[in-house]
Amino acid sequence: MADDGTDARTAVMGRIRRHLKVSDGPEDEARRAAVRSRLERHARNLVPARADGDDAHRLALFKTMLERADATVTEVATPDEVPQAVAEFLRNHNLPFQIRTGADTALAALPWDRVPTLEIGHGAAEASDQASLSHAFAGIAETGTLALHSGQDNPTSLNFLPENHVVMVDADRIVGTYEDVWDRLREVFGEGIMPRALNMVTGPSRTGDIEQRLFLGAHGPKRVHVIIAGSGKAR
């Protein structure tokens, strides 16, 4: 049987425990109990006051912070308008009428027949893809951040490989703070269960390493376009 790394992991953890002088006695049990208590309490960190407010406040703040992060935003009254909003984004940037998406059921249920010339690819992103479409798990108002968890529904490669990333966010999934996202994850996945990865994306990829000049698209998309669906506002 192939070595799955368990023996090596056990050896490494054993060396760490010996270095920390951790034993299996009462002191170790007290330490474990303290860790369990901390994890079970879900204690919140300092939360910015700007995240407080009703749904309208969170929506307005989310849009403001997105634009500060160099993302663009479109609001549509219902999810059924998302296909036209995607087509409009591609058209405005002279991009091929092609987009790649995962197996997300909400995206699949949209009326794509309203844009019959749009070619939709499915699965993980490929090097030739110029645009991708994801369905965000949540939008975070305090920083204009998108929470995107990994999985077949929304492969992580869609977030980083194409130069243009379009993200649909349901208006009722816009939360105030990062702590609210963790609460929602526990509600959806269950206590102690998490997706393999949760990416927090705030605007396009950027760097200022070269001569302190801001460059977009350095390590990922150079454009992030967010479509807020179900806000009740038409485009």
From TrEMBL:
Domain named LUD is located at 131-228
Which Gene3D superfamilies has this protein been placed in?
NagB/RpiA/CoA transferase-like
Matches recorded under SUPFAM superfamilies: NagB/RpiA/CoA transferase-like
Q: Which domain of life is it from?
A: Bacteria
Q: Would you tell me the protein name for this molecule?
A: Lactate utilization protein
What is the protein's species of origin? Kaustia mangrovi
Lineage of the species this protein comes from: Bacteria, Pseudomonadati, Pseudomonadota, Alphaproteobacteria, Hyphomicrobiales
